[in-house]
Amino acid sequence: MVTTNRPVALVTGASSGIGKETALALVAAGFEVAGTGRDASRVAPLGGVTFFDLDVVSDKSVTAAVQQVIERFGRIDVLVNNAGIGSIGAAEETSVAQAQGVFDINVFGVIRMVKEVLPHMRAQGRGRIINLSSVQGFIPAPYMAVYGASKHAIEGYTQSLDHEVREHGIRALIVEPAYTRTGFEANSAKPDSPLPVYADQRHVFDRLMAEAIMGGDDPAVVAKAVVTAATDTKPKLRYAAGPMAGRARLLRFVPAWVLDKQIRNMNKLAG
After folding, report:
1. pTM, entire model
2. What is the similarity comment for this entry (predicted)?
């Protein structure tokens, strides 16, 4: 075991994109960082980050990874649940099995990690659980119904969890990115039952998504929000990651008919 006076952060999905930038930002902020990937042996070395194998859909893998981090560092002060997958396509085009696969990573993967890490945090009387949501966790996401539903689930889960663990010196917090320049679109699950009736609009959405990601925030913007959530002396439940996410947050407060019209206009939907 490595004895350290520095706080320890465990970041899932740290081999690329937001997870990679978050791991580096936490190192710069003074943390010992344990990063995870499904095959750590294939991850390029990342300065100051120790990598562990982890597949969040496997109970056995989650238990083993958390135990290895505890054995290595003796503690976990911050858990960043970043590992996730996108899903693009009309709701009717997405099979139940495909939806279950998305939820197994985006929702149940988070739950597995929390259940494994929380006893350690309770025993030490402190800790922060930071769950990566999305602006699509609180506004409609046409042609991303399953992904949006998974992020809505994370919002609800984290809010309830936060109330349960506060008395134990632990906070559960949400970071909400908007469009970010990552491999999200390329790595998203595509509909496994595509239907011609949705094809034209799906192609429009794909183009809009590609343009939005190209003009989106750098992953470092999200990483900065995660570090703030991890280090704030008086943490907030939600952290908007970047100005685009901050503007999207205002949509929570507009009349329903205004939001409805704006969503349809933004996505070039008729009617």
Report:
1. 0.94
2. Belongs to the short-chain dehydrogenases/reductases (SDR) family.
Query: 32-37 and 8-11 as β-strands: parallel, antiparallel, unpaired?
Result: parallel
Terminal CA-CA length for the chain:
62
The pLDDT mean for the chain works out to: 93
Whether pLDDT at 41 is above 90? no
| Angstrom distance (rounded) from CA 107 to CA 85 | 10
> pLDDT tens for residues 45-89?
899 999 999 999 999 999 999 999 999 999 999 999 999 999 999
Q: Which residues are catalytic?
A: 15, 133, 147, 151
Residues 6+ apart with CB under 8 A from 198: 89, 90, 92, 93, 143
Distance of CA 220 to the CA centre of its chain: 14
Q: Give the model's pLDDT for residue 64.
A: 98
> Mean pLDDT highest for which of 153-162, 198-207, 208-217?
153-162
Residue 44 predicted with pLDDT over 90:
no
| Alpha carbon separation from 266 to 86, 255, 269, 270 (Å, rounded) | 20, 17, 8, 11
- 65, 36 in Cβ contact below 8 A? yes
User: CA-CA distance, 106 to 42, in Å (whole number)?
Assistant: 23
The letter for the amino acid at 152 is H
Structure tokens at 3: 């004895």
- All domains in the chain, ordered by first residue: 8-266 (3.40.50.720)
Q: Is the dihedral of CA 14, 224, 185, 130 positive or negative?
A: positive
